[in-house]
Structures are given as structure tokens and as C-alpha cells.
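Journal club prep — side note

Before the paper discussion, L.F. wants everyone to see what a predicted structure for a comparable chain looks like in C-alpha cell form. Sequence:
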Amino acid sequence: MADRLSAREAIALLSDDFHQLPVAEGAYAPDGPLAWQGYDASRARATERTGEDESVVCGRARIDGAPAVLIAFEFGFLGGSLGERTGDRLEAAYTYARAHRLPVVSLVATGGSRMQEGMLALTQLQRVARQSALTRAAGLPQLAVLRDPTTGGGWATLGAGADVVLALPGVQVGFAGSRVRPPEADPAAYTAQAQLAAGAIDAVVRPQELRETVGLWLALLTAPSTEPAPPPPALGTSDRLPDTGWSAVQRARSPERPRAQAYLDAYFTRRSAIGGDRCGGTDDGMLCGFGFSSGSDSRSASGSGSGSGSGEHALGGRAIAYAAQTGTATRPAGYRTASRLIRLADRLGIPVLTLVDTPGAANDAEAERQGVGAAIAELFGAVATARTPVTTLLIGEGGSGGALALAAPGNTWATPDSYFSVIAPELAAAILKRPPEEAPGTADQLRVRPQDLVALGVVRGIVSGGAATSPPPPG
């Protein structure tokens, strides 16, 4: 079990500059709304024990230089439970955040709703959910840090409902608290590590790293921009374009070709990852997150065969969201995580960079059971409806719809080490009842080379490692 920090100790992990918001709330009737015998005495003992008069402490803070509204639960006050007064304070904190255009950071440690207030306590979750939705609609980010324990309605609203969810090591996390779980339930399932593996949280962060981590997230999520992300320069060893369709396929499949991790390392000075689809799944083959672009590299790209410049953008230090395939068959959870990333960036006004590199969507039986078709459809929709600019670079294999779902219509670029195809040449040959040795010729017929894609109008241009690359006339 993790150490249970008080609300003030948790605040001190994040900020040395915290100012509590004023409290304006009515008095309880004797023993609360249900006249629960002994409730007044229980609250009085909780105040004496903790020094707090309610289960949450709300205020304005600076976290590693970034201003935010901070909400900290005091588990020592009746198990950090939510009652009417808790709802009053949470609503006031969210209202203050919207009025002052501040992000909300919640340090959650709660056992659920307060029994002594019955259904009036439970309905506070509806108040919290509404305030969270209003804050989301206002374009303000919400972060949650899960402490021990995070259960019940607090997990299902302030915790799991946040844009980015972090957890301290070893904490209990789950909708069911320890006293109401089935006796045969595996306790390991109700931990931060289990929730991380299930895609319900983004990272487990050590206490000594929490301030810097939350500060970086706040900086990344509060830096909107209307300028599109420029495509990264190609990292391959040669700017020479492939002579044939089959050579394009072989270059894209080469194990020596640079992958998404190398592109992200070169493109960003600092970045933080999100993980998981919030539906029980993760996919290591889809890297998603936000970062600050380096802005120092020489970026150039060719136009549609004319050799004209695309218009270069110097984006040093700007926040950019990214979703990058790593060369594997993308799982349903990967597509859902990318959709989550794009929708969050769209809501916050942050441009998106996507890196396409996959032989295609995973097509095994488990992928079908996990709804791969629906997951791809969701991503197509997220890209199609995004108001924030989306830029795509094809860095390797572009395998059919599983790759196209991540590509920006009208703003997709290619590297010399890439190809895009409606279907893999080998599979196309098989469908056409051709012998396997005709796959290379079929690749030529499919016109999959980067220069073919420019000529067809599928991609906007070809990026290089230095000067602009103008594709030769097709033929």
C-alpha cells in the first residue's frame, strides 16, 4: 500500500505557491440532510484529526511556473468522501477555473460518496460531471493525479474523466473500494499498474518527479496554435527516389530504415506520452502524446512535381500533438488512442503531426473481437472533423486503410523510404491469381512509389534530409 498523503502534503508535492479559494456555503441541518445520528460528531472528529473542515481543499497554484486551479482530497476527512459541501467546493473551483481561463489539476484520494447524506451525496457526481463537461467545452485541460485510494465516484468523474491521468506508485485505483469488492477478486487488478496496463491511465509517476511532470503537461496543453506542424525532414541515408515500385516496398520494409521513435526524438525537445484507449486496451505500436518541437532543423518539402516550395514554418518551442505508427500492424486500441489524442488536441487548439508506418491494421480474430473496424472508423472521423491543422508524414509502409486512417487529407507528405498502396503487392497478386513471382511487377502497376503518389495527388510532396526533392516525371 502506498503512503497516504494528506491534502496539504499532496499540494506541497506540486506547489510552493498555493492560495486557497474562499468558501461560501450554507450550514448543514443537525446531523446533515438525513438527520443521520452522530454525523455532526463524526465531522467534528475529522476536522480535529486533519485540520480541514471538508474533504477537499481547492485553490489557485503555480505548478513549476504554470498557473492552475488545484483540487486536493483529504482522505482523512471521512475517507475523502463526497457530500453536498464537497460538491459546493468543487463547483466553485471549476467555475473559478473557467472565469480565469485556468486548467484544473485534481489530486484524488477518495472512497466514494458519503453514506450519511444518502442519495444527495451520490448526486454530487452529476454536479461534478457537469462542471467537468463545461470546463472541457471551454477548451481548458483537466489533469488528475491518483493517490491512495482512488475509488468510487471520485475515480469515475474527477479521475477517469480527466484528459491526462497520472498515478503515484502503488496506489489503489478502481471503481469498487476494498470493502465492497467480491471476496475472490484479485487485489492486483485494483492498482495503478493494472490500470496502466489496461489503458485507463497514462503514467505512473514517482512523487519526486510529480511537480516537473505536471508542470510539463500544463505547459504542453495550454499552448494553442493555428499554424500547422511542418513535416519532419527525412532521416534515411539517401534522398534518391526508388526506381521501381518493388524497390520502394523493399526500402520501406528494410529493418535499417529509421522508425517513428527516431523521428520523434529528432523533432521534439521535450515530450510526454499518453497511453491507452480508455476502453481496456493499449498498443505499443502507436505512440501518442504532446511535445515541444525543436524548431532548429532544416525542413523542406517539394510541391506536386513542380519543384516549388511548400512554405516552411519555423516552430521552435511550439506545442504539437503526435500520433505515430511504429511499423507494426496497428491494433484496435492503437486506433482508439490516436482518436483520443486527435480529439484532445482539437479541443485545445494544438496542431497534430501523424507519422504513418504500418503494413496495415491487425486482422487476427482477437482484433475483430475488439472492434478493429469500428476503431478505424472512429479515427477516420476524428481526422476528418478536426478543426486544428493535421500534418502527416509517410515514413515507411502505408498499408491500405489501416494506414490511411491516420493520414491528413490534403496535407500528407512522404519520405524517399516510403510507399502507399491500396493493398500489399503480394496480396494484390494473390487476389488476381498471379504467381508470387509477379508481385514486383504488380507493385509497379499499383504505382506505390513516393513520386507516383505525388503525381496521383495522394501526397503533397516528398521531404528530404536537406534540400527539396522534386520527383521526376512519372514513367
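L.F.'s comment for the group: The first helix runs from residue 7 to 14. Keep this in mind when we get to the figures.
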